[in-house]
Design brief:
homodimer, 6-stranded parallel β-sheet, 6-stranded mixed β-sheet, 13 helices, 12 strands, 47% helix, elongated, DNA-binding
DNA sequence: ATGAAAGCGCTAACAA
DNA sequence: TTGTTAGCGCTTTCAT
């Protein structure tokens, strides 16, 4: 496999000239340019990217951490990838399984300069630790993070939950339960706050067994309905973060003889492809756009980084209630 | 940010010694090793991966091409990633949208040495073009490819389709239709062959309108049912490649008043998480294992590549009929 | 056990 | 417009 030196001697010019032809530099005579190009084509030469990365100090690649292959993260990911490829960036994907060690490994790539920046679609690591890698390149989280040294692009989960609750109360519901993913996350705390605030406003008491945690997959939805069927007093409506869970709920509710929305009204989240088939009323968080904005945030921080001190970009992406037939 | 030279002078040793400490080389006195390690820790030094890649001629990263974020590819991907991370490899993901240009760009990474090998979860490019990049590193396709210079790990789609058809005929069905993804793919041709061969055996004529092509998403399933409802003579059973499509079919069939399996029996493919909730009888192709074996194939070719002439590994991964309640 | 020095393949400052 | 040359940061002979 030929290198730039081979091309240079074969074309009878210096490596500089070859380098100039490669980068479209203007100061090359047409004659030499043609000759060099001819040798390059004939030899099937391509520059070694690692040498370029080494000398340029960047790789034009951004790392992305996803905890799982859940559709939620996929939607974000697709936004990141769209935007990245448009900007001429590659995407190095890391699946963390919510494991801190894996997240640290991805941060390590930043230190070792294999990636120019890192986007967390979800994080398990404490913000402080993440921030300590900020000196190696821009870091973006798709979840609100206080620290101003990193960027974050996020949904206002509190407001979104209020919107969902209000939609349900507007339809006459007061016996409302909800399902969330990981219990300890920041977003879950926000949702709890929103939930209780609406309940307070309504003057109805909170029923702890109507709060279902650790629901992320379709089978969790099934489990939830099974649980509900055993209750003496059942909720008449459910707010469900994640339409895959909502799908499980709807399907299982129907086979248990519950009518949607008469016996059980559902507001989902995410607006996945399956939501339409299920006629699911859902809150679309524009996940793809969150992904796009995340990449943009990385990109803008890169530009700045050189001149000023890096200061994170914070951006809240608006959500939207999509009304269908489950409420 | 310190480099190896800085560490060396700070520790009062040569760069060689630092390099030896870094790689755990035995010939370093305990005293110097300790001193060097101390400086490394104190400086927070990490080797620049690009320099290492350049001199070693490899990146310990494998590229993966997925056309879309469809669950099917996700399942394969998760297998690849598991195996890769176990072997200390990173994964550079490329989303091709079935676009040849994108696939070529991924192949380009192989030429430029940014990745050590490439796995196609799906390909649009002609095999010949893909093979022409074989000299730059091992290439694996998750789909049977004749050429022996590349590896492939695949499902025997013909046999799987026969299995599905036989399961349906064993339950008394003769009016069977089927749905596949892209019409022009090799797998679709194999399935067509399997379909017609079973039909021939049965002595029933082929009804072209019972073959539904370009079905990949849930909404395609809805479309298919809508179409079926307009037919004078309807199929009593459907073989559907892709459980997301099957989900659309089941949901829409039910809302059209069709009972599953009495009025319409379904055999799906893939056994996705949603399949269980839908009580869908499906053919599990062990997609995750296909991913794992694909990485293994890459890995073994790498080892060989140095010694012998590269010769692809061909591996058929067994499938399995999972019986539930849709037939 | 240790280090000097020769690259890996490329870019860019500088000189001509 | 072109070429010489000095690195980018690291590994690895080859001496000692």
């Amino acid at each position: 496999m030929a290198n730039i030196k081979d091309i240079a001697s074969l074309a009878g010019v210096s490596v500089t000239t070859v380098s100039r032809v490669l980068s479209g530099h203007p100061y090359v005579s047409d004659e030499k340019r043609r000759k060099v190009q001819q040798v390059i084509d004939q030899q099937g030469y391509t520059p070694n990217a690692n040498a370029v990365h080494l000398i340029k100090g960047q790789t034009k690649t951004v790392g992305v951490i996803v905890p799982s292959s859940h559709s939620y993260f996929h939607a974000i990911l697709s936004g990141i990838m769209d935007e990245a490829s448009e900007a001429g960036y590659g995407t190095l994907l890391y699946q963390s399984r919510y494991d801190r060690k894996e997240e640290e490994q991805a941060l390590h790539l930043l230190r070792t300069k294999q990636i120019d920046g890192l986007i967390f679609c979800s994080r398990s690591l404490p913000v402080d630790e993440i921030v300590s890698y900020g000196m190696y390149g821009p870091i973006v989280t798709c979840e609100h993070a206080e620290d101003e040294r990193i960027s974050s692009v996020y949904t206002d989960h509190h407001a979104a939950f209020i919107t969902g609750m209000k939609h349900l109360t507007a339809h006459g519901h007061t016996d409302i339960g909800y399902c969330v993913g990981r219990a300890e996350s920041r977003s879950s705390r926000q949702r709890y706050k929103a939930y209780t605030s609406v309940l307070d406003e309504l003057g109805v008491p909170l029923i702890p067994e109507w709060i279902f945690e650790n629901s992320t997959e379709t089978k969790d939805g099934i489990r939830i309905v099974d649980k509900i069927m055993t209750m003496k007093k059942r909720p008449t409506a459910l707010l469900i973060t994640g339409d895959e869970v909502a799908a499980g709920v709807i399907l299982q509710a129907q086979s248990a003889g519950l009518r949607i929305p008469e016996d059980l009204a559902i507001v989902g989240f995410d607006n996945l492809p399956i939501s339409e088939a299920l006629k699911l009323t859902t809150i679309d968080q524009h996940l793809k756009r969150i992904g796009q904005e995340s990449f943009r945030a990385f990109y803008e921080m890169r530009d700045k980084g050189m001149k000023e001190k890096p200061k994170g970009i914070k951006k809240s992406v608006p959500f939207e209630l999509v009304e269908r037939a489950s409420v």
